[in-house]
Amino acid sequence: MLTFQGFSKSYAQAPVLEIPELTVPAGIHWIKGRNGSGKTTLFKVLAGLLPYKGDIFLDGRVALAQQPVLHRQSISFGEAEPLYPAFITGQELVNLFAKARQAPEGQAHHLAEALGATAFLPKATGAYSSGMLKKLSLVLAFLGEPSLILLDEPLITLDTATVQAMYGLIQERHRQGTSFLLTSHQDIEMPDLPLTATWLVQHQTLSLVTSR
Ligand SMILES: Nc1ncnc2c1ncn2[C@@H]1O[C@H](COP(=O)(O)OP(=O)(O)OP(=O)(O)O)[C@@H](O)[C@H]1O
């Protein structure tokens, strides 16, 4: 699904990640790593938000740096601590993302219902709690038909029922062929998801811990 070749990422002169040669197969992947290890940096690179050196390919055909439009259509990113302009409503963002991503009819409604976001979408996001912001960010991340969805720290601020609903959506989309990368800075297990592999960001690289 993802192939790294001679990849490296630095901030100014400070190296953060180096992945000389690695293939991450399709599936649901859980990426662990301590605070500051480089998980968010990896996701921002994959989401096309940060420059890097080397090559990253998606599904063997989309070279992320060389095909930015196809890249952004193919990968969607749910941020760890999402922030939106305070005056905009959740519904306006959902409408915008649904249009830009050509989301199938009814998909936004299904996602908002599943994640318990329908009631507050008409309100301006400046009035949202951190959990409401996270639910909105998940609705936006699932919109459209990307082949890879990146969810950075998806468990933080969500109540137990919403975490279960999110697991349900991940499995539903996985059955339809979507891959997922999920991160956590906590060393927790994920018994409720059929994980393809667990990875660790450590010593400035990404290493496989376990795989099915
Ligand atoms: N914009 C930036 N400029 C300079 N250094 C940065 C920048 N963003 C992140 N870093 C550095 O890169 C390293 C990796 O940070 P990153 O946010 O990717 O870690 P993380 O694994 O997501 O951490 P956490 O679990 O705390 O969210 C850290 O040393 C951090 O200080």
From TrEMBL:
Against PROSITE patterns, the record matches this protein to: ABC_TRANSPORTER_1, ABC_TRANSPORTER_2
Keyword terms: ATP-binding, Nucleotide-binding, Transport
Per UniProt, residues of the ABC transporter domain are 2-211
Q: Which Pfam families does this one have?
A: ABC_tran
MF terms from GO for this chain are: ATP binding; ATP hydrolysis activity
Query: Which InterPro entries does the entry link to?
Result: ABC_transporter-like_ATP-bd, ABC_transporter-like_CS, ABC_Transporter_VariousFunc, P-loop_NTPase
> What PANTHER family does its record include?
ABC TRANSPORTER ATP-BINDING PROTEIN ALBC-RELATED
Q: What is this protein called?
A: ABC transporter ATP-binding protein
Organism taxonomic ancestry? Bacteria, Pseudomonadati, Bacteroidota, Cytophagia, Cytophagales
